[in-house]
Design brief:
The complex is a heterodimer of chains A (117) and B (589). Chain A is mostly beta strands and 117 residues long. Chain A has one helix at residues 36-47, and strands at residues 7-15, 22-30, 66-69, 72-75, 85-89, 95-97, 100-101. The chains are: A mainly beta (117), B alpha/beta (589).
Chain lengths: 117, 589
């Protein structure tokens, strides 16, 4: 799968904050085996540094880069960009700005927590 | 002028993951008000959660306390000896003794809080098996639950810009609340830095986004001494291609399990020149240096790395590996990636290169985690003395718990002895000015261009193997970049979650730390641990068995040699081949 020739894809990104949101369209050259996170990083580095998105570990562990890709919730870092796509915040309710959204709350008290604290 | 909001606490902890969380818990246990701040999201940022999962204790305790198949012949003292040998004798022997003695109690606490041991391994460099297995992600989330149980205040998405101090010491920090862009003045009686290393200075790294050396740089600017900055650690085999996997996976583990071949572009197994007995199974520092030397000699792969090949192994043998590989590697998964999606048949070699993985040196601390400035404590990755010139596998997570707890404890004791003091207005303004400057019009290079230039210098002129000529060029390039820093250009001025502001501030931090690496590497005229000098390829114990301590006043740097104290492990004498400790000979070809 990393044998694909480089080509240009159309990426729509849902941006904005609060109740306001709009789609912005970017044309991105796709590298072989590039992730959705790689696409976002390309947009920020080369096309539009005002785009806000978050990521941390880049290896599919932390979930800081959760977004919706064509409607499906996914980690941007481990999702391979296959072609034209729509990228949105994973949840519009917890969006801070553009693709940065407060992550889902982690379970507060797991049963195996000891009572001693 | 942006509005400033003031928040007061007894102990301010910067960093909320392995080390920071443990420090916050300890200070809160002593009845103090604690505020922990993080640049990212809690439990979703920082290096702790990326740790595979070994947390080391001496093998005797592994049997007695944790019921593992360890060796009763081991002891805290033997563990300390291994750390000092692994650290090529630059470790602070007092700190190492504390580290190995306190490790079992800290891991026991984790089990009391609900952690489960998922395995037990014997990693290279350890005389006995010592690696208890608790995945970093589970550890980070378990500690976060302990913070919530104690109602410890956590501010997420809060980037600290600079520390505040007066003649008596540190009294707070200026930060930005990233979601709003508002400036915060955080006031405290004692402050703990738990901000990790600066691996993202280098273009290829296994470290998460946040690890840009912010804590080290802020400490340096505040007058603190840094030590052992010439020893960033590299892992030899991380992916260069495809782009999704770049620098982020650890196929190194695979090379320890299977007979893999590291090849240069001529198809030669170049490790024969470096360690003819162990070949690819030698230690990671020698593997990294060997790969870097091949690339440097023009024998690298198409994308500038080396090759790792499985082609010589029969297909059914490779298929069987999915049944017995340990942990995450079973079924060829690496972190969140399924490697077989990218490399379906393992007929082709992987293109790999060494990536910066850990920061052995950092802030100079004493047994109480005190820095050279009163009221400022530091712990975890980015502090010097515990690992010396190289870290043993599995010892990073141990460091977070042993030293996080100590920092929290001693910061709390200190905090009880002093009052809150008024931050000097000039310092608050100096810090806020850095943010304001990013908001004013400039025609200079963009923050992205500056970041790319810092990483170009780190990759091309500093790199894994170093020499005087390119290090001197790096100093000149850094000086040029420092002139441009006040004029770096930001294109968007929305104060909410402004990534360009974050990068603008990180650029200054990365540049400060890169300069410290260059100055320390230039000063050390030998090769040792994680540092290889092409122009001084021998380890010289007569001249260089010392720590290099760096300090900066205004723009003037001092680099001082401090001898290592010989306490319970005797120090070697003479001159030896790089990588040779006792026995093995790894003279470069």
């Amino acid at each position: 799968m990393h044998q694909h020739k480089s080509r240009v894809i159309t990426v729509q990104v849902r941006r904005g904050s609060g109740d306001e949101s709009h789609l912005v369209v970017y044309e991105v050259p796709l590298k072989p085996g590039q992730s959705v996170l790689g696409v976002l990083q390309y947009i920020y580095d080369h096309l539009d540094p005002t785009l806000a998105f978050s990521c941390s570990c880049r290896i599919g562990l932390c979930s800081a880069c959760l977004v919706r890709v064509n409607g499906e919730v996914a980690r941007a870092c481990t999702t391979v960009a296959e072609g034209d796509m729509l990228i949105e915040p994973y949840s519009s309710d917890t969006r801070i700005k553009d693709l940065v959204a407060r992550p889902p709350l982690l379970a507060k008290h797991k049963p195996n927590d000891s009572p001693s604290g | 002028m942006p509005t400033e909001e003031e928040i007061c606490c007894d102990v301010l902890v910067i960093g909320t993951e392995g080390t920071g969380a443990r420090a916050a818990i300890e200070a809160a246990e002593q009845g103090l008000s604690v505020l922990a701040v993080t640049k990212g999201f809690q439990s979703r940022s920082g290096a702790t959660l990326t740790a595979d999962g070994e947390i080391d204790v001496d093998s005797h305790s592994a049997c007695e306390i944790f019921g593992q198949q360890g060796s009763p012949d081991d002891s805290a003292e033997q563990f300390a000896r291994d750390m000092i040998r692994g650290g090529d004798y630059l470790n602070d022997q007092r700190l190492v003794a504390i580290h190995t003695e306190e490790a079992p109690a800290r891991v026991k606490e984790l089990l009391d809080w609900g952690a489960h041991l998922e395995g037990f391994i014997h990693a290279p460099g350890h005389t006995y098996p010592r690696g208890l297995w608790i995945p970093g992600l589970k550890l980070a989330r378990l500690l976060a639950r302990q913070l919530r149980k104690r109602d410890i205040s956590v501010l997420e998405n809060t980037m600290v810009v600079d520390l505040l101090r007066d003649a008596e010491g540190v009294l707070g920090a200026v930060a930005i609340d990233l979601p709003t862009g508002k400036l915060l003045v955080l006031r405290c009686r004692a402050l703990v830095l738990a901000t990790g290393g600066a691996m993202r200075v280098f273009p290829l790294t296994t470290a998460p986004e946040e690890l840009t050396g912010d804590g080290l740089a802020m400490a340096l600017r505040c007058g603190v001494r840094l030590q052992d900055m010439e020893f960033p650690m590299f892992l030899p085999y991380t992916f260069l291609t495809p782009s999704a996997l770049r620098g982020v996976i650890f196929p190194y583990d695979v090379s320890a399990l299977l007979e893999v071949h590291a090849l240069n572009r001529q198809g030669e197994r170049y490790m024969f020149h470096w360690d003819p007995q162990r070949l690819e199974k030698t230690t990671r520092d020698i593997n990294s240096v060997a790969a870097a030397m091949e690339i440097r000699a023009g024998r690298g792969s198409q994308t500038g790395g080396t090759y790792l090949s499985f082609k010589h192994l029969p297909r059914n043998l490779l298929e069987f590996s999915t049944k017995w590989f340990p942990g995450n590697l079973r079924n060829w998964r690496a972190a969140g990636f399924q490697l077989r999606n990218f490399f379906p048949d393992l007929e082709e070699a992987w293109e790999v290169a060494p990536a910066c993985h850990f920061w052995n040196g950092g802030i100079k601390i004493d047994e109480r985690c005190q820095t050279s400035v009163p009221g400022l404590f530091a712990a975890g990755e980015g502090t010097a003395g515990i690992h010396g010139a190289n870290r043993l596998a599995g010892n990073a997570l141990t460091m977070t718990q042993v030293w996080g707890k100590r920092a929290g404890s001693f910061a709390a004791i200190f905090a009880k002895s002093v009052g809150l003091r008024e931050p000097p207005r000039a310092q608050v303004e100096k810090a806020t000015h850095k943010v304001l400057r990013l908001r004013s019009f400039s025609s200079g290079p963009t923050v992205v261009e500056i970041r790319q230039e810092i990483r170009r210098i780190a990759g091309k002129l500093v790199g894994i193997v170093r020499e005087e000529k390119s290090l001197s060029q790096a100093l000149t390039a850094i000086s040029d970049l420092r002139d441009q820093l006040p004029h770096q250009r930001v294109q968007g001025q929305d104060p909410r979650f402004n990534q360009e502001w974050i990068e603008g501030l990180q650029n200054e931090n990365m540049l400060d730390i890169l300069e410290a690496v260059v100055r320390a590497s230039l000063a050390r005229q030998e090769s040792r641990g994680a540092l290889y000098r092409v122009d001084y390829p021998f380890t010289d114990d007569d001249r260089w068995l010392c720590n290099l301590v760096l300090q900066r006043h205004d723009a003037k740097w001092t680099v001082r040699k401090e001898p290592v104290q010989e306490l319970y492990v005797s120090l070697p004498r003479g001159k030896r081949a790089y990588g040779q400790k006792e026995g093995g000979n790894h003279a470069p070809a």
